Amino acid sequence: MERVVRLTLLGLLLAFGTAAPIKEDWDIYSFHINSTVTSRYATTVITSRVVNRVDAPKEIHFQVRIPKNAFISKFRMRIEGEMYDGVVKAKEQAQQQYTEAVSRGESAGVVSSVGRTLEEFKTSVTVAALQKVTFELTYEELLKRTLGKYELQIHARPMQPVKDFKMDVYINEKPGITFVQVKGGLSTNALANAITKTHAQNQAWVHFYPTEQQQIMCDSCGEQGMNGDLVVAYDVNRDASLGDIKVSGGYFLHHFAPSGLPGIPKNVVFIIDRSGSMHGKKMHQTRLALLHILGDLAEEDYFGLIIFDSSVSTWKRELSQANSENLAAAKEFARNIRDAGATDINAAVLQGAEMLTRNPRNGSASLLILLTDGDPTSGVTNLERIQDNVRKAINEKYPLYCLGFGFDVNFEFLEKMALENNGVARRIYEDSDADLQLRGFYEEVANPLLTDVIMVYVGVTNLTKTNFSQYYNGSEIVVAGLIDNNTETFTPRVVALSKSIKMEFETEKDSRLESTGTISDHHLQRVWAYLTVKQLLDKELQLSGAEKENVKKEALELSLKYSFVTSHTSMVVTKPPGENTQVLHKPKEGPSRHVTHVIESTPKVTTRVFAASSPVRRKMQKTKSHHRPSSDSFRTFAMDYADYDESADDLTTTTKAPRTSQVPLHHKFLLGAENQTIPLCYDVSAKHLKLLQDPDTGLSVYGKLRRSLQGGLQKIVIYYKTDQRIEVNTNSITVRDGQHVKAFHWGQDHVTAGSVTLILRDNEMDVSIGDTRIVILLHQRKGEKLLWPVLRQFPSGNNTVGILVAKPAVYSILQETSVSARLSIHNIEVIALRTSAVDYSITSAPTLDCWSVSPELALQRELSDFLVTQS
Asked: What pLDDT is stored for residue 24 in this prediction?
């Protein structure tokens, strides 16, 4: 499925730190955005010129957001007449340069950010007194058509009014431009007359030149200048023929989007997750979207509804016609969907595939739409096995679209499963408009026009993807390739089905394809490279072993050749001598919308042990461990629930390991690594944990694990000396000081009990005991509460033991694949599988990758040293 992707520049920031710029310190005297769109391929250049107006060096920050689908291809800075260019390298080489900078004591950063559709690039440089700096960033993207239009969206926020502020958009489309619209918050009221739009057959120009006064007077403006959107939407002329084909310099580019075709009736099965994690707003928004979608079905359509948790239920066993009677009954069914239970994705999708396979209709288009917010936790839970089962059941007969609700879902698993079945995966963000996101996705696939589309070319090589399961109204199919010899041997043709009727699209007899005189050879070549790299990265996700490595190598070579910053390359941001070295990575899809990793010039020790939400691979957010303790360093721990025994409610200081028969629990712990970005993880069967024990001060801390898929602790008990005990659960806090017992609740503010000081906030509790400081976080995850301890200040004693003070791991990677690695841990070689973890030590609780090993190997001591039993 082809869909529109907005070409977006959000948050065009030039700021000193996070504060608003002070005009007397430095000034952006010129800020230009120039975007050129030719044959739907956009090249955008952002140029910002800044002057340091004070008689002292000043650090200037440059920050800009770009679309996720875009590849940065160039970045440079001009300082005092010297040009400093960023260089795209293989990620390993770039990371080595980054690491070397850290080892020399220099500041180095990996800077990237993720939002709904955005990534972030930012850097900084020190500008000498009264000197200037010019930043220039270039990125490239192929616009995708959705619902009959392309959109170029720019969000301007320079952080101050700029005297010379210009946005210039130039669009050149050979078939002719049918319409051009300018909209967004920056196109109305006070700024409306700052926009000039010109449209002349196959070209269009949009200029946006607001004055300094206009930049502070518009609806979304202020003393810090503009903060809003400018959106340019357009489409091109289309007909029912072969489409738009361009040939230049040995390359061709084919845009296929025929119009005037009759719609095809569809068979659609909606598979809705109703597990407990869908509780509350998610379920409400899903019901709203489903009711709207059902109302949009045409009477010639057939549909099915499947809801699942640990079991699978269907509204009706067979597909039902979308007549008024059935729709009314289906809507009533949808209104009564309630959340409960675990998540059996395998059984649900197989049930949907069986329903479509059992009810074939000639002349129709079938599709499956899966909506889930979690990982498989019931039935078949092995991800590769689920993907294999689904692939065999669908057998390339129709596409599967996977919608991942929120960030707890394993999006990579859904993405691979969708790609393997000719569909796409889309993340639905947990915002107020989630129901609109669901409905918007459905609208993209609601009107199939062709099925089994095959793009056929004679006399070409190195083709991008040529087979497409369905073509939808308002979308577009794009293919590029290299022509063997000349245009006379190049013969394009498209074969497809429309209501089971074979259709062929081809050039008219005696017509010849001529090279275009308006598009450079360089342009079509870059479009081909962009498409090829994108599709290789998708293909890599689906493969394993030698095939995966070959595809990865091909994607890397093309990325380096065309200077694209992709998942296999990074840009080394070079700067003047003495300045910081930075490495820009293409960020992965992950839970954090703004992630910035910086290694400071003065190393600090930060050892983290992360918790897993389920044993599956995740996209990784990188962290870095350092080497010297400091007062603000912390260590924390985590676990993953699999089974639980609720007996025994108290916690004691007994140090014997529990008997496995008494405590059939299975938890996954993760341990931060001192010299690697990915922590280790290990499995433990236990109930009660020794978190910290300091014989010198008489301080002991114990934790009781929760019975929940979310993991975490349900109780933490702190003993101090012989007469003080603090018991913390998710609802209240009890403090015993000798014979005196007091009860408190979260959010009660400052409390002093003997030699213990508590600061109680809504979701955080600060405990100070002697020279030790522990922060206990209260998380709410999928409607459940859990506790998490973070050691902020270590005891001064030398005999302290426990989970919280476990030493970071030291290991090296000898060989690595996407799912496993051969590691050397303290000179012991071991095969480790890649799984995942949730870091509950911070409020946002990001999900991280980890390598699974034995607990003894990870901890370098007996596991029983960290366990306690009931007295």
From this structure: 58
Cα–Cα distance for residue pair 3/601, rounded to 1 Å: 44
d(C-alpha 468, C-alpha 464), whole Å = 12
Q: What are phi and psi of 38, to 5 degrees?
A: -125, 120
Contact predicate 629/644, CB 8 Å: no
Model confidence, pTM: 0.67
Task: List C-alpha distances in Å: 510 to 104, 503, 515, 676, 785.
Answer: 68, 21, 16, 63, 72
Its CATH architecture, for the domain 266-446, is: 3-Layer(aba) Sandwich (3.40)
pLDDT given for residue 649 in this prediction:
37
* CATH fold for the domain made of 7-237+565-585: Immunoglobulin-like (2.60.40)
Q: Where in the chain is the domain with CATH 2.60.40?
A: 7-237+565-585
From-to residues of CATH 3.40.50.410 in the chain: 266-446
At 732, the pLDDT band (50, 70, 90 cuts) reads: confident
The length of the chain in residues reads: 871
Pair of tokens at residue 53: 């107006």
Q: Can you say whether residue 845 is alpha, beta or left, with left for phi > 0 and alpha for psi between -120 and 50 degrees?
A: left
* Rounded Cα distance, 470 and 465, in Å: 13
Q: Is 299 exposed, middle or buried (0-12, 13-18, 19+ CB in 10 A)?
A: exposed
Q: Are 670 and 609 in contact (CB under 8 A)?
A: yes
Task: For residue 372, list its beta bridge partners.
Answer: 404
Q: Is 281 helix (H, G, I), strand (E, B) or coil?
A: helix
Where would I find the H helices in 504-562?
521-542, 545-561
Quick check: 16 pLDDT over 80?
no
Residue where the block lists tokens 């010379």: 164
